[in-house]
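Entry for fe (ii) ion complex. Fields follow.
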Amino acid sequence: MENASRPKYSAVPLKYKEVQGISAKTFSEHFKLYEGYVNKTNEIYEKIASGFADPSKSAGTYSEYGEAKRQLSFNLGGMWNHKLYFHDFENGAGTKPSESLSRAITNDFGSYEKWKEDFVATGMAARGWAMLCFGLDDGRLHNIVLDAQNAGFPATVVPLILMDVYEHAYVMDYGVARKPYIDSFFNAINWTYISKRYDISVEMHKLWSAQ
Ligand SMILES: [Fe+2]
C-alpha cells in the first residue's frame, strides 16, 4: 500500500512568458494541462493510500486497483514530460549542443543534419511526444515516438529532448500546421541543459554497465 504521508507534487512555475514562435497564450493554456497532471497524480496517490480498493482483488482484466495504477503511470508521465518540456525553453535561444553530445549525434546518426531530419520526422509521426533519448544499456542515442504520456518507449532510457506534438502545443499559434511549430521548438530549446543531461547519462551508462 502507498504511504499516506508521501510528499505532494507541485507544478514548477514557468520562468518566461513566451519564446520566439510560441505565444504566451499557448504557454499559459498548456501550463494548465501540466497542473492537471500534477493534481491528478497527487489525487491518485491519496486515493490508493486511503485503501479505496482492495489490492488482493487486483487483476489485469479489470480492477479498481489496476485502473488506479494505469492512470498513475499516465499522469506521472504527463507531469514529468511537461516539467522537462517547459524547463528546456528557458534561455535557450542561441545555445548549441556540447562537443561531447555533437560527437555522439554524429556517431549514431551520421551528422547533426541527419539526426535533425530523423527527429523532425519522428515528431511529425508521433501522436504525443518525440523523444531523443539515451539508452542506458547501449550508451547510444535514439529518436523515439511516444503515442501517449506513458506509452511507446523502452523503460531503460534517459530522455534528453522531449518535444510535445499534441495539438494543444501549437494549434493556437499555427492552426494544425505542426512543422512550423517544430521549427520554433528547435530555435528555442536550451542545448546547454540537453548536453548536461547527456553527460549525466554517460556516467549512468558506466554505472549501469558495471552492475
Ligand atoms: Fe502538452
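NOTE: Helices lie at 24-49, 64-87, 99-109, 112-125, 171-174, 178-188, 191-210.
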